[in-house]
Amino acid sequence: MNFDNLGLLPDLVKAVNDRGYSQPTPIQIKSIPLVLDGQDILAAAQTGTGKTAAFVLPILQRLAFVGLARRKQVRTLILTPTRELASQVHESVETYGHYLDLRSAVVFGGVRAEPQIAALERGVDTLVATPGRLLDLAQRGAVDFSALEVLVLDEADRMLDMGFIHDIRRIVEQLPKNRQTLMFSATFSKEIRLLAGQYLVDAVSVEVAPANSTTELVDQMAYPVDPSRKTDLLIHLLNERQWSQVLVFCRTKHGANQLSKKLLEAGFAAAPIHGNKSQNARQRALDDFKSGSLQLLVATDIAARGLDIDQLPEVVNFDLPAVPEDYVHRIGRTGRAGSSGRSHSLLTLEDVPLLKGIERLICKVIPRVQVSGFEPIDTPPSPGQRNTGASDKRQTAPVSRAPEQMARRSRGSADESHNTLKHRFNTPKKTGSVG
Predict the structure, then answer these.
(1) What domains can be seen in the chain, in order of their start residue?
(2) Which terms does the record give in the GO molecular function aspect (predicted)?
(3) Which residues of 60-90 are buried (b: 16+ CB within 10 A; e: fewer)?
């Protein structure tokens, strides 16, 4: 199977080949003919499977057979949850439409609206937008939806998670009812199916992988370590394994800033990317990371979706996500488009329940890899006690002045607790199925 077999225009096939792609992915093979036929579709695919091209290519083909959009008109609307994803999708629209006479634009918040209004003034065939900024521009009268032919809800599950459902409803109310609607999501949750029932007509479901699965091209591992030594372990791995390009995930914006600062102090080219950064700063960091001038991009989950980085080899979960599904999206940044990759999770004792939840979700056991010199101390030191690293021996707090019988009972209880925690922390050591 190649792109010619999918019935695409030669100009589109040429643009795809220019990117170095010769064979379509499963989601593209299933989706492109349906979109070309005008079907509404609800598609689920794990990240990194080429789903953007699965809707961009057939949409561009449909648009190519009709005249250009008129003043302020939009013929195709692609809604995305984040600025980064909007930029990535728009880049794909321009890349694949390189040999076609079509106009496109992208609009999102965090930047001046005037240039976006100017771009919409003459009309665009494809508009990629985040919901909030699009509503603002619509209220200003900068966009005309009367000629809209296709609506795409990309990363629909993420938009629901981020609370965009009310904005989406307000936008859809302004669109023609006689349109084609495509919904792409990493998961088929009940909420997603309910949304699809409201906006899609006679939709065809397309699913190319089990829900919430992780790609087999990503080698996943977890490294047990004490919380106080996570940064030291990361620096050790960077030095020992000579990683050249690493996307590091932290749970909080403050954590991303602090880790980025420590990595800079250790001599690594690193920068944080999260919601508190201006759009220009975020785009600059992303561009530097893609070009190779930035070795480490330290991100919160705002970057878990939509970052399209060719052949990204390493993803590090410095903090495990609180929501298991976010783990799938995080590690989906590597192992894309047929390339292999690795995911490394730093595992503290407190993170074990989170990892268990992830393993239940993906139906896979993530092997633990112990790094010499970073063996965790299974029970934390008492207040005021200094932890000097992996060479420290586990110390026992002084027994209070109590009868010997009480002291023995206390020690027995402590030993039982320690053994239980040690078992939970260090097992399993090999991959397999989770029951």
Answers:
(1) 3-207 (3.40.50.300), 218-388+420-426 (3.40.50.300)
(2) helicase activity
(3) bbbbbeeeebeebbbbbbbbbbbbbbbbbbb
Give the list of residues 6+ apart from residue 391 with CB closer than 8 angstroms, or none.
none
User: How far is 300 from 287, CA to CA, in rounded Å?
Assistant: 17
pTM for the full predicted model? 0.60
- Rounded CA separation 60/282 (Å): 29
Q: Which residues contact 317 (CB under 8 A, 6 or more apart)?
A: 249, 327, 330, 331, 343, 344, 345, 346
How does strand 270-273 pair with strand 296-299? parallel
| Closest-CA residue to 345 (of 326, 320, 365) | 320
φ, ψ for residue 214 (rounded to 5)? -110, 145
Tokens of 317: 């979960």
Written as six digits, the tokens of 106 are 């992208």
User: Per residue in 257-274, pLDDT tens?
Assistant: 999 999 999 999 999 988
Looking at residue 271, its amino acid is: A
d(CA 60, CA 302) in angstroms, rounded, equals 28
| Secondary structure class of 204 (helix, strand, coil) | strand
Task: Tell me if 248 sits within 8 A of 273, measured CB to CB.
Answer: no
Residue 343: φ, ψ to 5°: -120, 130
Give CA separation, 415 vs 305, 397, 408, in Å: 44, 13, 11
